[in-house]
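Narrative of accomplishments. A recurring question from our advisory board has been how the design workflow behaves on a single, concrete structure rather than in aggregate. To address it, we present the structure tokens for one chain from the evaluation set, followed by the sequence designed for it. No filtering or post-editing was applied between the two.
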């Protein structure tokens, strides 16, 4: 079953404009980059209060980022983390690919955008909430009545947000022939 989407992936011309925007600054948070990209491309901003619209916009943005990572003409490596998107000077040890291949495959497959329904988004959000609570508890932050004590730890690779998205990528990898 296919679901209607409110947006489409950036075409090559839009990706070029997005690339120029990305190069204007080396550190971005997702919301800021999303707003600036949509304004620069003269696209209607998504409804940030609607989970499906927000997911679709997130997917479109990450699809563009992963397409740039795969673009040999893009002069930087891109590090995609929970709280920030960073451009990194490429080196011999850093070949423009600083991300999980399963996540890359997930975001580069447009079918994942098309098939993701509102109920699937709700399920992901519920799972994230549970995983984040478990993570905070494992870090001792809830027991200390300090739910923000793990803010720095939330940037680690094994945070619930990364785990939830990684699970999506893992499901994609298992489903691949």
């Amino acid at each position: 079953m296919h679901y209607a989407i409110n947006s489409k992936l950036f075409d090559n011309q839009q990706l070029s404009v997005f690339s120029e925007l990305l190069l204007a600054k080396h550190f971005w948070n997702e919301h800021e980059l999303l707003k600036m990209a949509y304004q620069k491309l003269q696209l209607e901003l998504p409804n940030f209060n609607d989970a499906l619209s927000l997911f679709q916009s997130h997917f479109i943005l990450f699809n563009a980022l992963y397409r740039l990572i795969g673009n040999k003409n893009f002069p930087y490596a891109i590090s995609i983390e929970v709280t920030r998107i960073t451009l990194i000077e490429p080196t011999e040890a850093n070949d423009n690919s600083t991300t999980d291949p399963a996540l890359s495959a997930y975001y580069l497959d447009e079918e994942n955008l098309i098939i993701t329904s509102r109920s699937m988004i709700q399920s992901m959000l519920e799972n994230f909430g549970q995983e984040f609570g478990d993570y905070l508890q494992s870090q001792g932050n809830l027991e200390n009545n300090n739910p923000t004590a793990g803010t720095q730890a939330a940037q680690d690779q094994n945070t619930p947000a990364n785990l939830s998205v990684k699970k999506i990528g893992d499901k994609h990898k298992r489903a691949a022939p």
